Amino acid sequence: MTKLQLGSIPIFKRSVNLSLMLTSSLLFSAPSLAVQCDSLPIWDDGTSYNGGAQVQWQSSAYQANWWNLNANPVNHSEPYQEWSLIGACDAGGTNAAPSVTITSPASNAQLASGNQVTFSALAEDSDGEVREVKFELQGAQLAVLSSAPYQVTWLTESGNYELVVTAIDDKGASTQSAQTFSVVDASNQPPVVTLTSSKTRVSVGESVQFAAEPSDSDGTISKVEFSVNGALEKSVTVAPWVMDWISPAAGSYTIQAVATDDKGATSQSQVITVEAIASAGGKCSGATTYIAGSSYATGQNVVNNGELYQCLVGGWCSSDSAWAYEPGVGQYWQDAWSGQGACATAPNIELISPVEGETVLLGSDVTILVNIEDLDGTVADAEAFVNGTSIGLVTASPYQWTWNAVGQGSVDLKVIATDNEGNSNQLNTKVSVTDQPMVAAITSPSSGDVVAIGKAVTVNANVSSLQSEVAKVELYANGLLVSGDTTAPYQFFWTPTTIGNYQLSVISTDLQGNTVTSASVGVSAKSVIQPKHKLIGYWHNFVNGAGCPIPLNQMSKDWDIIDIAFADNDRNSNGTVHFNLYNGDIYSSCAPIDPVQFKQDIKELQAEGKIIVLSLGGAEGTITLNTDADETAFVSSLSEIINEWGFDGLDVDYESGSNLVHGSPIQARLPRALKAIEANTGGDMYLTMAPEHPYVQGGMVAYSGIWGAYIPLIDQLRDTLDLLHVQLYNNGGLANPYTTGAAPEGSVDMMVAASRMLTEGFELADGSRFMPLRDDQVAIGLPSGPSSANSGQAPIANIEDALDCMISLTRCGSIVPTQASPKFGGVMTWSINWDQHDGFNFSVPVKAKLNQLNAN
Predict the structure, then answer these.
(1) Which superfamily does 192-277 belong to?
(2) Is Signal included in the keywords of this UniProt record (predicted)?
(3) Tens digit of pLDDT for each residue in 639-658?
(4) Above 50 in pLDDT, residue 21?
């Protein structure tokens, strides 16, 4: 093949004659010519080229026929176009095209709308450099990147999509990779609304403005309704979302706003209580209530927010610019008014008995007792009402009435107190009247709940005796006695053994022999079978680079075990642990997680067979277990948390911040404490551990400090331990008994070596031996993507090979177990949030592999 040196090629002019152009065009397009391209620049779409300029592009050489800009030589080298093809670059300069692989999202991934996701790709060039990487979605360009990491963020919208990523190398060769995925509508998020008021204490007839601030993260606000004492007062359909309201009479008023979004979801604001005073007493007697824009004369007195003011300048006092001249509030109010001090105040009333919501016995005498005081005068009288009917007027302390409880059900009690200036205030409460000497109710579970057979269900009951003391409370399931309790709080653990419907009730007895049976609570039990090989993930209870905490009902359904990260150690206490569900923060706009919905989501996930555990520790987690008192508080607080939130158990993830080392009180006390928590929560607590590998396999290298510090914990808890998923990341390669050097992070050998050491046992540095765990107790722990850990990321192919190696002894690397682990636990990852942020690049392929293995 003939080589043509570029220096011998004539330079074209703009005025080149047509016959020469045609001849040259034919010459340069001849396929028999090979061109030495090493010295030629790469064509650039932002560079202008004069006639005769020579470039290389996509393994061919071209020469400009005349001046041009942004004319791709490949598409503009036909006769009468801007470029002429000189020839293909010769073999000595053969350019290998770059490689490009889309790493996120996963193929055919299904994403939720309204989330920020990251598209990412890997691009390499074996014989040069990657010049740029282009991201295109549905044909529209998202970004052009000239250096790694090749990542683009995108806000998901419903629809089906194709992502195309093109890598172009320094010689113009290009390669494309395409991935299809879909975005579906997430469950509609209800709006959020807050309410503020200009005043909370007014005179009768005084105006108050209430301002609502609604927002909707995934839509728009269609209306805001304001209610007063539970009755609709005003509906607003456009901003500003305000209501001006004048109190019609003295008393206490509750105001609330309800926001509705464009999809019909609603949410309520907090309740604001406004006290309306009947009249301005003392020096405020006769003064009018200030209303912006009303006409006031110089020297006229007004009342605003319980204070007396005298007008200095009539024109300014009468201004409708409340922001400037509202007495005591406006920016320039002192130019218009003179403050005269506080008006008389109404009496304060404090309820002593009965307490709000108390249940009283039909026909019994009930004492109504209140404390009343007046800060600027004396109490004239107080009157009590039952369902609106007066039961007497009292003119001196003690302010007490006796009422014979008649009529069953809810009863409204009210006390109105009046002072020496005629100012009045009222207190309202409710009680219940029953003809039963005892009352009992199951508070959890709720009717309609679904529970799993073979798993302990916590049953809580409220019981009280109106004539005596409770002697015992017994739980029955479908009429059969389950267990009894003699001390409050009344709690039971019931384990359904067969599929079906159950009616739960409690029968209570007091010391006088009175008994009562609670209303039944109907639940259904179904068989919930966990997959043999599981996908385990950690859920963030905080904000970080992965974004906001994800509502549990918006998570991918691929997760089998969900670790809620994390519980919080009370540094100022003696071992107490708290669980503080994310409630917003000042550093982000992330919405709080609703605790009621969170608990409901846990129940629904458990009904689907998911396991939800609370994780203790984390990279910065601490623990206080130095004394018996610490241990007692630790056990008590975690038992209460599990019962309150409905967690299936605990995950132990204590790391360097915990000071868990050989010989520490934590190492000695934690196993005993965990066993006590299990006993307190029904005896069937799901227990997992996620130590870093120096704490476990590191015991082969040394057996002091942190090295092997988890071994005594595992040994004491191996009978109750459900899963041990050691973190194979952030700590370098794994020293093991099978290779002379450490198995590198992310390799098949590292995952197999770590798992084999746990399923076959290994020699510890002190000469003792770690005895094998069951294969179903062992799982692999890995980071989900590039941002979730500093190191240890494993290619999906390596994860699949390691699973096959452990389960069926196939596709192993240099390390091969002595026997298969057919019940191998699965794969854990940090984290659910990072995985969703990265487009489910970990969970989708790994879950697919686990499903394949579970089907065998």
Answers:
(1) Immunoglobulins (2.60.40.10)
(2) yes
(3) 999 989 999 999 999 887 77
(4) no
Quick check: is 225 catalytic? Answer: no
- Find all residues with CB under 8 Å of 496, minimum gap 6, and list them: 451, 452, 453, 454, 455, 457, 477, 502, 525
The answer to whether residues 392 and 385 touch, using CB atoms and an 8 Å cutoff, is no
CATH superfamily for 534-855 is: Glycosidases (3.20.20.80)
Whether cis (ω within 30° of 0) applies to the bond prior to 831 is yes
Tokens of 57: 């592009």
282-342 carries CATH number 2.10.10.20: yes
Can you spell out the DSSP letters for 260-286? Answer: EETTS-EEE---EEEEEESS--GGGTT
CA-wise closest residue to 754 among 813, 831, 834, 666: 813
CATH code, residues 2-93:
2.10.10.20
Asked if 90 and 35 touch (Cβ cutoff 8 Å), the reply is yes
Of 206, 233, 236, residue with least CA distance to 322: 206
pLDDT digits (tens, 9 = 90+) for 85-107: 988 876 555 678 888 888 777 77
Name the more confident of 595 and 207: 595
From the DSSP assignment, how many helices (H) and strands (E) are in the chain? 12, 56
* pLDDT tens-digit map of 247-291: 877 777 888 888 888 887 777 888 888 887 655 556 677 787 888
Residue 362 contacts residue 406 (beta carbons within 8 Å): yes
Q: Are 698 and 706 in contact (CB under 8 A)?
A: yes
Q: Where in the chain is the domain with CATH 2.60.40.10?
A: 99-184, 192-277, 348-434, 438-526
Angle between helices 595-607 and 628-645 (to 10 degrees): 80
Structure tokens of 203?
């005179």
Q: Which amino acid is at 558?
A: D
Which member of 82, 206, 275, 655 is catalytic?
A: 655
Cβ atoms 675, 712 nearer than 8 A: no
The rounded Cα 158 to chain-centroid distance in angstroms is 22
CATH 2.60.40.10 fits 348-434, yes or no: yes
Global pTM?
Answer: 0.54
Q: Please state, in angstroms and as integers, the Cα–Cα distance from residue 126 to each residue in 34, 89, 385, following that order.
A: 22, 18, 90
Which helix (H) or strand (E) element contains residue 673? helix 665-680
Euclidean distance between CA atoms 6 and 86, whole angstroms:
9
Task: Write out the E strands in 527-583.
Answer: 534-540, 561-569, 577-578
Q: Which residue has the tokens 């650039």?
A: 44
Give the CATH number of domain 99-184; options: 3.30.70.1350, 3.40.50.720, 3.40.50.300, 2.60.40.10.
2.60.40.10
Specify whether the CB–CB gap between 471 and 509 falls below 8 A.
yes
Say yes or no: domain 438-526 is CATH 3.50.50.60.
Answer: no
pLDDT tier, 205 (very low <50, low <70, confident <90, very high otherwise): low
pLDDT of residue 557 exceeding 90: yes
Asked if pLDDT for residue 822 goes beyond 90, the answer is yes
> What's the CA angle centered on 776, arms 772 and 777, to 5 degrees?
60
The whole-angstrom distance between residue 99's C-alpha and the CA centroid of its chain comes to 37
Cβ-count burial of 499 within 10 angstroms (0-12 exposed, 13-18 middle, 19+ buried)?
Answer: exposed
Amino acid (1-letter code) at residue 691 = P
Identify the residue whose tokens are 């009422």.
Answer: 403
DSSP state of 520: P
Range(s) for CATH 2.10.10.20 in the chain?
2-93, 282-342
Q: Which of 170-174, 333-337, 368-372, 753-757 has the lowest mean pLDDT?
A: 170-174
